[in-house]
Amino acid sequence: MTQFIELSHPIVEGMKTFPGLPGPKSVLLFDHAGSSRMYKEQASFLIASLHLCGNTGTYVDSPYHRFPDAPDLSGLPLERLADLEYVYVDARGRDGRGIGPASFEGLDCRGKAVLVHTGWDERWGTERYFEPNPFLNEDACLKLVEAGAVFVGIDSVNIDDMSDLRRPAHTVLLGAGVPVCEHMRNLGAARGGEGRLHAVPIAWQGGATFPVRAYIVRR
């Protein structure tokens, strides 16, 4: 029996993902009642547009997010976004906010996604979500790149310490072509590492970040 594990937050109009960035706005173009007249009462359709910042909900960062000459969303290879083996890392018992290389010691990360479970998603939808957050430190990211990780996801508001304007985690990972997925949820259900991860954004030319429907498939 196939099992699907949801790892993304729903997109809700007006939601707040990151301080200072606008929330999404939906615009109804045709509803069922209005469109049925266009089809002479033989059919009806709902058509709407969604206006959002790329950094909304659970989203993937392309290298272009950090580096102006790096690949954008349309340039991300699918083999770094879909049908990935993954490694689950339980970082809830960390000492302090920073997650260092010791959390990844002895793990086989080559060619795999690394999912870091901090438990921060329990604060989602509250102002506490934007308090000083758990993050990956620079040495941890260097270790993941050296270990051959091809994707890194976290359930925190940011993979970096938001007070560190150097943004070393983004710099190291995106500089190595490793997509970053932030604001994940339900990572506890990924424990064990069985299944395959999918987290594919749209192929937006010139886009740096975009929401994904991240999920695990277990068969």
Main structural class: alpha/beta
CATH architecture: 3-Layer(bba) Sandwich
Helix share, percent: 10-25%
Oligomer: single chain
**Beginning-to-end CA distance, first to last residue:** 6 Å
Count of runs of 4 or more consecutive helical residues: 3
- Low-pLDDT stretches: none
Number of domains: 1
**CATH level 1 class label:** Alpha Beta
Could you describe the 3D structure shown?
The chain is of the alpha/beta class and about 220 residues long. The chain has a single domain (about 5-15, about 55-219), classed as 3-Layer(bba) Sandwich (Glucose Oxidase, domain 1), CATH 3.50.30. Helices cover about 10% and strands about 20% of the residues. The chain has helices at about 30-40, 140-145, 170-175, and strands at about 5, 25-30, 45-50, 60, 85-90, 100, 115, 135, 150-155, 180, 195-200, 210, 215-219. The strands form four sheets. Strands 5-7-9-10-4-12 form a six-stranded mixed β-sheet, covered by helices on one side. The protein has a three-stranded antiparallel β-sheet with strand order 1-13-11, with no helix packed on it. It has a two-stranded antiparallel sheet with strand order 2-3. The termini are close together. The model has no long low-confidence stretch (mean pLDDT about 95).
